[in-house]
Amino acid sequence: MNILDLTQLHTIGYRLQDVKVTFNRDIKVDTPDVSIEAKHGEILSISRWVAEVLASEKLVDIQDTDMIVALKQALVKENVQGDFDLSTLDSDFYIKLNSYIQRLPQQDRDKVESMLNTLMRKRQGKIIRLGDSSKMTSDLAKKLSIEERALFNAIHLQSVDFNKQILGDKK
Predict the structure, then answer these.
(1) Which of 25, 116, 158, 159 has the highest Cβ tally under 10 A?
(2) 140 and 76, same structural domain?
(3) Whole-structure pTM over 0.85, yes or no?
(4) DSSP calls for 88-120
């Protein structure tokens, strides 16, 4: 399974999770798959994908983790680590962040994407060095997002193949 397929699969799982929402008006939705009845100001947990649809119509406000704060914290933690040490990210960190970014106004989105690119470049450099020099350990796997684990494994396999091409099976 390639990185894109893996990310899409985990994104689907993320969007199926419940999230708390505050209703901006009285609403009654009744379909074969979804049934919601809520009053203005009421707080309920509903599937994230339903919340996103309702939020796009300004019917609810999603009560979610402020991913901008999480991104800033991740960037600070990553800067503190050495060249071969990674800070820990939730396995679905980028999925959560991308979902959050989609709901931001374009002006804010550009700023957040710039911070995200900085974090990704820093972590990608470390993952490339680690993937080239060692196997995945359980400790390292806990620190990586889903996408980063797939990147690490791809780099490691390519590095092993390259070494075999040059050195044969001597190593």
Answers:
(1) 116
(2) yes
(3) no
(4) ---TTHHHHHHHHHHTS-HHHHHHHHHHHHHHH
